[in-house]
Amino acid sequence: MRFKGFVLMLLALVTSSVLAACGGAPAAPTAAPTTASTGATTAPTGATTAPATAAPTNSTLAVGIVLPTKDEPRWIQDETRFKEALTAAGYQVEILFSQGDSAKEKANVEALLTKGIKVLIICPQDGTAAAAAADAARKAGVKVISYDRLIRETDAVDYYVTFDSLAVGANQAKYLVDNAKGTGNPLYLYAGASSDNNAFVFFQGAWKVLQPKIADGTFVIKNSSEAVALQAKADLTRDEQAKIIGQITTNWDFNVAKTLAESNLTSATAADKGNVFILAPNDGTARSIADTFKADKDVKSYLVTGQDAEKASVQYIIDGKQSMTVFKDVRTLVKDAITAAVSLLQGKTPTASGVYNNGKVDVPAVQSAVVTVDKANLKASLIDSGYYQASDFTGL
User: Fold this and answer.
1) CB 289 within 8 A of CB 278
2) Which of 119, 179, 307, 381 is the most exposed place for a label (fewest CB within 10 A)?
């Protein structure tokens, strides 16, 4: 009963801290609920008693988090949000980074298991390779939450917290379609890492929107022979996607994206350039690709997509260097992950709004909505919502 009371108090404090991080004032304390709320959009209600100065402390490390790299601003955002919410709750957590290395990722998980964690939250570097880490956690009796990216080919995943990844790609592609006029518009395709399941889902969402406009001649693919060979197909198999992604992968790396874009432009004729449309997978690669295209004398104009609403890309959008980004509110994803973790600590099953098949089992999941942001709605979406401060940028 003492543990149950602690968890209820913890859940209340997590809710207050997350609401505060989202820009809203914490709700006044109410009577403790009998069950935990685990919905995607509704935060758990507060609990009574302890003042803010008496936050509970847990001497045992209960939650371990493993993120893919410190080298992308997106994951530093996630680290910050987790720390803000969990520290404010007096909840011990350790966050480790795998730095793009699946072996290091598994070592990180093993290190957390030796410290006695009860729940593992992991964003895999390589979705398939991470199955071994999930299996080790399951063997140790630890619950596994796959965070943002899906761990594949194992039944040792208890829950998946993600954004609507199909919508991310679809929103990117729709932006290009909505801004295209006439026919014969040069289209350059880029994708994330071939080891990342999300890269396939993003591309799948984008292809579904772009393919009809490729088929009717609105766009002409300029940098992937595999995509050209498959351009008549509205629905691609995973193997077919893999063939295309193999040619256009940036590996989520700024330098790889820059080198690939340079190679594509070197191979292209002046007629393949002009007013170009670019499907870039995320903000970091979008900036590198945009800078490369901007430097080419035969590129008259470009539209380039992104995702994650990184500060640097928000400034690029303000400055007219990047066209759009898909905003994925990390505050919501962190809240959902924490809510699921607390539910699992209570021995309960988090509420799911859907399932994702990981090649082995259907994993219960909750997915958050995404928002297209360009210069027109940037202030309302990112500043007025409290996600960023206006002082973070120039030229607003």
Assistant:
1) yes
2) 179
DSSP letter for each residue of 214-271:
HHTTSEEE-S-HHHHHTTT-SS--HHHHHHHHHHHB-TT-HHHHHHHHHHHHHHS-GG
Read off the DSSP letter of residue 191.
B
Residue 187 CA from chain centroid, whole number: 25
Q: Pairing mode, if any, of strands 354-357 and 362-368?
A: antiparallel
Render pLDDT for 161-183 as a digit per residue (tens, 0 to 9): 999 999 999 999 999 999 999 99
Q: What are the strands, taking DSSP E only, across 25-174? A: 63-67, 93-97, 119-122, 143-147, 159-163
pLDDT tens-digit map of 226-238: 999 999 999 999 9
Domains of the chain, CATH where assigned: 2-157+330-368 (3.40.50.2300), 165-328+374-392 (3.40.50.2300)
73 and 284 Cβ atoms separated by less than 8 Å:
yes
The residue type of 131 is: A
Distance CA 252, CA 197 (A): 13
Q: Which residues of the chain have pLDDT under 70?
A: 1-60, 89-90
CB 322 within 8 A of CB 283: yes
Collapsing DSSP to helix, strand or coil, 120 comes out as strand
pLDDT tens for 98-108 read 999 999 999 99
Q: Is 90 left (phi over 0), alpha (psi -120 to 50) or beta?
A: left
Under a CB-based contact definition with an 8 Å cutoff, are residues 316 and 322 in contact?
A: yes
Phi and psi of 290, rounded to 5°? -60, -45
What's the pLDDT score for residue 60?
A: 60
Size of the chain in residues: 396
Long-range contacts from 229-238, C-beta under 8 angstroms, 24+ separation: 234/208, 235/208, 236/204, 236/207, 238/200
**Residue 395 has which token pair?**
């030229």
Q: How far apart are the first and last CA of the chain?
A: 53
